[in-house]
Fold this sequence. Notes:
It is found in: Cell inner membrane. Belongs to the TRAP transporter small permease family. Pfam families: DctQ (PF04290). One of its GO terms (biological process) is C4-dicarboxylate transport. There is one protein chain. By secondary structure, the protein is an all-alpha fold. It has one domain. Helix content is about 70%, strand content about 0%. It has six helices and no strands. It has helices at about 10-45, 50-70, 90-125, 135-140, 140-160, 160-165. The longest helix has about 35 residues, at about 90-125.
Amino acid sequence: MTQERTRTKFSDLFDAINTLENVIAGLSLTGILIVVIIQIVGRTVGTPMPWTEEGTRYLFLWMMWVALASGFSKVESPRVTFFVSLFPQIFRKLCSCIYIVVNFFIFGFILYYGGQIFFMQMRMNEMGAAILIPMSVIGICLPVAGILGMLGVVQSVLEYRSKVDIEGRGEGK
């Protein structure tokens, strides 16, 4: 069942954010593919390159955190709704509120502690072992994901409300 999107005055902003998320995830995935191919070729010809494992890991972290946040903008992350739909409507309404609050808390947690990790990496001038780039370039993916996730939850509430609401499901069963 596909739900129509309700356009709001923030829709253009949400579209830009969604495009940014897709570009970051797409570039990360493309980078992983290229680096893994380089790694395979290097091992095949007998000259493995140690930076490829680290590069793959860094790209994967960016891709995974941004994709996690992206899943919330259109309520595409998995949720348990079957059992919730068996309960009375008042409980289903409460579950929708819990969904919003818990997700905001989780992304706030990621933002706060990810920000602490990022600033610690900046203060310590931590560098990658094989790829000599500042680890803060990698660590910033956590606060970025926290912000994108919170914006995604706001978008889901404003523009995909029927997918967030569990209260109407299960009627007549």
